[in-house]
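User: quick one
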Amino acid sequence: MNHLLSIDDLTGDDIREVLRITPSFAEVAQRRIAKVPALRGQTVALLFYEDSTRTRLSFEVAAKRLSADTLNVSVSSSSVNKGESLRDTAETIEAMGIDAVVVRHRSSGVPLQLTRWLDAAVLNAGDGWHQHPTQALIDCHTLHQQLGDLSGSRIAIVGDIKHSRVARSNVAAFTKLGASVVLVAPPTLLPAAVSTWPVTVETNMDAAMASVDAVYLLRMQRERQNSAFVPDLREYAIRYGMTSARAALVGPDVPILHPGPMNRGVEIAAAVPDLDQVVVIDQVRNGVAVRMAVLFLLLGSGPPPELPIASDPSSEAATSATST
Amino acid sequence: MGERERRGAPPYGGTFVPRALVMDAEHIRRAIKRMAHEIVERNHGLDNVVVIGLQTGGIEPAQQLVDALEAIEGVRTPLGSVDVAFHRDDIGLRPVLPEAPTEINDDLNGRTVVLVDDVLFTGRTVRAALDAINDFGRPRAVQLAVMVDRGHRELPIRADFVGKNLPTARSESVKVTCDSVEIGFMQK
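Assistant: Done. Structure below.
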């Protein structure tokens, strides 16, 4: 892969390959000297047109653990405030010599557009309502740690699905790994085209919680909501929030995930994040390792082999025959 | 062993076609035993010795060496593994992916590290391994044990303990498994 724009561009095997190599990158963080020279001499620009703490920091730490240099372009203090266009900003950064751009933008499709303008690898760190692929890979890895192989498991995604790029990426990723997804939300917070998604829909949260292997809570994205989708946040919290009672209902062995930042008291009751089954901190920790893996795959693994030998079953058979 | 790395990597890519059996299981067992005695002799015992196998070909021989050392001295030497993917000098030139997480649970400061690999060829993997273990401390000494030394070094690196010196042509390929060493070539 040359860019990471959307989970839709990946196969189930691609995702499994990321999950396979991620522990090697997590191990680097445990070393006395937590830095390896893999991407020495490469430069990664972080171009964030939207607020972000954990995603930007986690990409930055990931790049630095691999010895890449990072350029932070924070929009509030750059020429964007003087009216510079996205294309001019991107081309200016590229002219300084960069190998990858990590981009977040409020408009869907900006990362794809950048690939047409730039030679650098483009990593989508969230574009509008569209996709947030590294978050989905992180969530797959976290669930893989908790549940093992995801095929056959049932995962509930709860909350503001309509405005959520995380939900769109995760539905695709979980499904590609063989899990079945149930969306839980009031009808106003479901996307218009939900009938075309490979999911089941449930509007009664208690009914959905009775038989799931994992629960994924989404943030109420009030900054993206342009009208009243729920009558009242307190009512929403009562009907769709992860209360202590619902956490008990799903059971103590069922992991609860949230991409952060959490609105305590809205989608998750104030006391619930402290339960052992809530793995939000694992998600953040895994974020660095997964993003290291993605950066290494894009920038460090070299051109593809000349021959697709791995996919030739006859050579596989011959090789294993000689090794036994 | 090491198949993934070799598989897609020209000029080594392709299917291994064996030409001759160089060592059988009994040869390998004896070579491991002899190398274990040499390690004990060189280090005057096993105090502070740590055995580290290189992913993936060195894992099996490292395990066998630790077993042989235990049979001689009656103590279990700490065993680790190192994946050199992040320290290779050909990153970006060909596909290199990590195989398995590095596992070194001991502080290497002041220890004697015995690195173990299956085949010593150009020396580039060993160079990368020397870099990698530096992240875990400063060993008092690093020694190198290999099942087969096939020559063709590209760096000033030599092995301290060798199972078999095997003269080869550059174009040939050597395949080591837990019970055989074969020489042959890779067919595209």
